[in-house]
Design goal:
By secondary structure, the chain is an alpha/beta fold. It is 19% helix and 29% strand. Strands 7-4-6-5-9-8 form a six-stranded mixed beta sheet, with no helix packed on it. α3 runs parallel beside α6 and α4 packs across α5. It is elongated, with a radius of gyration of 31 Å.
Length: 405
């Protein structure tokens, strides 16, 4: 089955968006939460820091007592105690008194500043200072980072290492996140063989899609399992039906064009609903999507480069947003170094190498030439309303790195 009228890419994406699902929520240890997405607001259980603390190794004292101190006019203080990290002093700092203090230790009563030890000399309990400080200097005040009861992170926040530290400081050892979707990749094709150094039989080809597509799924924050199916209706139907019972998303490669033995869309049509099949894009026109057993099915090309581009066009966004994380192309402007022809009504994803100013499309860019993706670091996107671009024109560029989870 192949729909004679090609959908626009924007309409294909809308159809996918209309069927967007969100995964369930799970609570996991904070130690496992890196690169996950929050499914709850984070409210602080504690002040951070929980007390006024020293930002330096030095001496806690009364700032006003240091005024006028310099190399030529030093002042003397009496050391009355010492505080290490994790400790505190019960003594109160008086006039011309000081307490030795470590970074992170609580400021003792009476003190209102910390003088760095580099500006002092000590002889037993005699402290000589050669610089002055102002009130509050070298002190991190209580709750300057977090106030108890404050919302510090919103639901749907992507948890990087920075957020991990903030969540921990707020008092959480566990956190609620969206589950990672489980994706079944079904590789179809009687012609496919495993990678080998041996001579390959005539009409056979190495199955590279199982590696590229599964890696792209994992780069979208999801969990991937792979299976293979021959080019028969019954084999593909069994694989898709089984996957629809056990997985959140199904992705197939191969079996989407108009040729003998291509059966994937016929199976999707038989088991469920086809949302679209055939999109006005280059590369990868035969891309499709459907729903089987209330699960999204993306049908990608068997051509390696086409399948990679199709994934970025329609599947990656779906997997991101299943986990509560928004996804959009981060378009950057570059100057095209070459003329790029296109057709009105078609969106082109042109493999390119771009730097800080320019973008040059890869000349050898057939749908099966994997090396063209290796040589590229970005797509130049030619909108369906444009007829390509001339050398020197400003073009929209999406860097591959910006697509990663």
């Amino acid at each position: 089955m192949f729909l004679s009228k090609l959908d626009s890419l924007s309409n294909a994406i809308k159809l996918v968006n209309d069927h967007q699902k969100i995964t369930k929520v799970e609570e996991i240890p904070l130690s496992e939460a890196h690169n996950r997405v929050l499914a709850e607001d984070i409210m602080a259980f504690h002040h951070s820091p929980p007390f006024d603390k020293s930002a330096m190794d030095g001496f806690a004292l009364i700032a006003e007592n240091t005024f006028g101190a310099s190399q030529s006019a030093p002042k003397e203080f009496k050391v009355i105690d010492a505080i290490g990290a994790g400790d505190f002093s019960s003594k109160t700092v008086g006039e011309n008194e000081a307490i030795v203090i470590a970074t992170g230790a609580p400021i003792p009563d009476g003190a209102n500043a910390v003088l760095m030890k580099e500006y002092t000399t000590v002889d037993d309990d005699k402290l000589t200072i050669y610089s002055q400080v102002t009130p509050g200097e070298n002190i991190s005040p209580k709750s300057e980072d977090i106030k108890k009861g404050q919302k510090v992170l919103d639901k749907h926040t992507f948890i990087r290492y920075q957020e991990l530290g903030l969540i921990a400081s707020a008092g959480y050892d566990k956190v609620k996140v969206f589950k990672k979707p489980r994706v079944k990749v079904i590789i179809t094709g009687n012609e496919l063989v495993e990678p080998t150094k041996e001579e390959i039989d005539k009409a056979k080809i190495i199955n590279s899609n199982q590696y590229t597509v599964s890696a792209m799924v994992e780069d979208s924050g999801a969990i991937c399992d792979i299976t293979h199916a021959g080019d028969t209706f019954d084999e593909v139907k069994e694989a898709i039906l089984e996957a629809s019972n056990d997985y959140d998303v199904i992705i197939t490669t191969g079996g989407t064009a108009i040729s003998k033995g291509d059966v994937v869309l016929d199976v999707v049509d038989d088991l469920g609903e086809i949302l679209f099949h055939g999109v006005a894009v280059r590369p990868g026109k035969p891309v499709g999507a459907g729903v089987v057993n209330d699960k999204m099915v993306f049908t990608l090309s068997g051509q390696p480069v086409a399948s990679m581009s199709q994934f970025d066009m329609v599947a990656r966004k779906y997997l991101f947003e299943m986990q509560g994380r928004s996804f959009d192309f981060h378009l950057q402007k570059r100057v095209s170094e070459l003329k790029i022809p296109s057709q009105l009504g078609r969106t082109d994803f042109i493999r390119a190498f771009a730097d800080d100013e320019n973008a040059k499309h890869i000349l050898n860019r057939g749908s099966g030439i994997i090396r063209s993706m290796v040589d590229a670091n970005s797509y130049i996107i030619i909108d369906e309303n444009d007829e390509g671009c001339q050398k020197g024109d400003i073009v929209d560029v999406v860097f591959f790195d910006s697509l990663l989870w």
